[in-house]
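Quick one, T. Sequence first:
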Amino acid sequence: MRLLHTSDWHLGRAFHRVNMLDAQAEFIGHLVTTVRERGVDAVVVSGDVYDRAVPPLAAVELFDDALHRLADLGVPTVMISGNHDSARRLGVGAGLIDRAGIHLRTEPSACGTPVVLADDHGDVAFYGLPYLEPALVKDEFGVEKPGHEAVLAAAMERVRADLATRAPGTRSVVLAHAFVTGGEASDSERDITVGGVAAVPAGVFDGVDYAALGHLHGSQTITERVRYSGSPLPYSFSEAEHRKSMWLVDMGADGSLAAERIDCPVPRALARIRGELEDLLADPELARHEEAWVEATLTDSVRPADPMARLCERFPHTLSLVFDPERAPDDPDVSYARRLAGRSDQEIAEDFVAHVRGAGPDAREQAVLRDAFDAVRADEAVHEVAR
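Structure tokens:
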């Protein structure tokens, strides 16, 4: 069976001030063409179909167009909701859409109920594990303390239990939306940390032939059987070095795998350039970036006049301008943003406590802060689901 694994479409999302809807439509066309020309037997979409719980109408229309085009091909598609999606909204009409071969899996309670497809060698069971927000699903899975590993492990127990009831030789695919240990994050993914932990071990997927992951935006091979497709388009400059692609996975009769990356069309290259303004405007080595989307970091000690206008004369698609003067880290004039760069909310809060009272929080106080951040994030998730 030949699978096409993709995820993280984020329909409706912009790249800085650039509307990406046309690029997203081009990707959908590329996806449909790939399915038709490469003889794909099933498409799997591992979450974050939309960029937000209530997507703009144009994004909904593009999704509707994608569903119709995939259904017209007669190739089954299995989709799950991600942490950016509203599971309820994405799942509306799932029973009816199911008849067209588009299988939406957005209910945590259905983790152990697969979509069963068949090829010449027998059945392949596709288990959809939508994004499992620990605070919202802990009761469903009977876990005492909510955490990503606990709820995902409980969901996988249901998968393995169902698989054990099926005919010998039944192959299996799991779709999941999670941060798996060993994956490399980028700036464009929403933080899903709970209890100070965001990642789960890859071993949680032991026992299935292929785990098609979503959430991280870079295409990655965690193990030969556990892979991220990554997003088909870039959504932050931290993805400048990404190769945007999908996985074309051939599954043999015995569950053996062969995977090939299928490149996605990207509207423009991304470039991050750094230096003093005059140097950036004069450096001949930067000519290759003149048609790229550019993030420029200026290191001038004094902010130059009209920097964006001057940059755009050479790099007309400059989208982001950052000022980062070359100063010692302990210089009092180092920007607040620079001091906080790369630090989690927990770390920032602990630094604030240390600044106010002269000593950082002890273990008990760290736990209080962690629980507070978890509670706020869970509350936000509850309100987003209810919208």
